[in-house]
Amino acid sequence: MLIAPSVLTADFSKLKQEIESIDNADYIHLDIMDGNFVPNLSFGPHIAKTISNETEVPLDTHLMVLDPLKWINTFTIPGTEFITVHYESENFLEAIRLIKEKGIKAGLSIKPATEVEEIIEYLPFVDLVLVMSVEPGFGGQKFMPEAIGKISDLNRIRVEQGLNYLIEVDGGINDETIQQVRAVGADIAVVGSYLFNQKNRKKEIKELKEL
Q: Most CB within 10 Å of its CB: which of 5, 156, 161, 187?
């Protein structure tokens, strides 16, 4: 299992130390919120660039914004491997095309109320599918078990159609739920408050990878 810590719950007053504490992760997950698509604001490109400058770990940027086309140029920063946009947002297909034009891998995310059937026609065009296992916008929420079925469906479709997208899951991930999502085909787990509440985060990342 690949681990992508979400820095949403990090202490931004000591960002350098926070990033160092997770530098054995596979990705660093950046939750970008505009206050419109979700009822919260996170941080902007300056913080994202600062994080990029502090680490060799590739960035996994999740745009929880109303119109991702307006944000992609801003978040095309060095070290970015994925930029993920929401199916429920505006212009998401054009956004996927623009991300790929930038030489970055494109992801498509679905909220808990969105069914996998709604995005099947777009799966051949993406490198990653992000299943939200909580309502996006705030950290520390409880894992929604209905995400298990979506991950399983995405894994089945991937095999049946010979597609290569990675399956990522975000929300309520801990040492128990990560085993559930791995068992049905998830490749990447976004881990937020559970990880940042640990004293030894590097040790926890190592253990989560091995579960």
A: 5
Q: What is the pLDDT of residues 114-171, one digit of tens each?
A: 999 999 999 999 999 999 999 876 666 799 999 999 999 999 999 999 999 999 999 9
What residue spans define the domains of the chain? 2-210
Burial of 163 (0-12, 13-18, 19+ CB in 10 A): middle
- As a whole number of angstroms, the distance between CA 192 and CA 20 comes to 15
Contact 61, 40 (CB under 8 A): no
Catalytic residues: 31, 170
| Correct CATH for 2-210 of 3.90.550.10, 3.20.20.70, 3.40.640.10, 3.40.20.10 | 3.20.20.70
Report the C-alpha dihedral over residues 188, 98, 119, 41, rounded to 10 degrees: 60
pLDDT digits (tens, 9 = 90+) for 174-191: 999 999 999 999 999 999
Fill in the amino acid letter for 5.
Answer: P
In whole angstroms, what is the distance from residue 71 CA to residue 76 CA?
A: 9
